[in-house]
Amino acid sequence: MSCGNHHKTSCTDVLSEVWEFLDQECDPQRRAALQEHLDECSPCLEEYGLEEHLKLLLARKCGGDSATIEFKERLRASIRATVIEYKGAPPQT
């Protein structure tokens, strides 16, 4: 996805990392770059808002159960692969 405007961080990169951003799992520098992009890009901000609502819904419905680290890693990898496949972007390492 691209909004058509030039940003320091691409829309595709931001949306592929939105879960790490929401979970506060990226380093402070990366978080600041993602936040800057979301502040200036309304299409990505809209997508982020949907993701944020989904995360809150999942947290509410899961009743606070905690997943294992291995499960979280498999889930993140699966989400990344799906986003990359859907967006047609090359995989990030």
Q: Describe it for me?
A:
The chain is an all-alpha fold. It has one domain (about 10-85). It is about 70% helix and about 0% strand. The longest helix is centred in the middle third of the chain and has 20 residues, at about 40-60. The model has no long low-confidence stretch (mean pLDDT about 75).
Task: Give a quick set of tags describing it.
93 residues; mainly alpha; Znf_put; Anit_sigma_mycothiol_RsrA; Mycothiol system anti-sigma-R factor
Chart the SSEs and their pairings:
Elements: H1 11-16, H2 18-22, H3 28-40, H4 42-61, H5 69-87
Helix pairs in contact: 3-4
Q: Could you estimate the helical fraction of the residues in percent?
A: 55-70%
Helix-strand pattern: HHHHH
Q: What percent strand?
A: under 5%
Largest β sheet strand count, sense and barrel closure = none
Rounded to the nearest angstrom, the distance between the terminal CA atoms is 19 Å
Contiguous helical run count: 5
Number of DSSP strands?
0
Q: How many structural domains?
A: 1
Radius of gyration from the alpha-carbon trace, in angstroms: 14 Å
Mean of pLDDT: 77
Summarize the structure.
The chain has helices at residues 11-16, 18-22, 28-40, 42-61, 69-87.
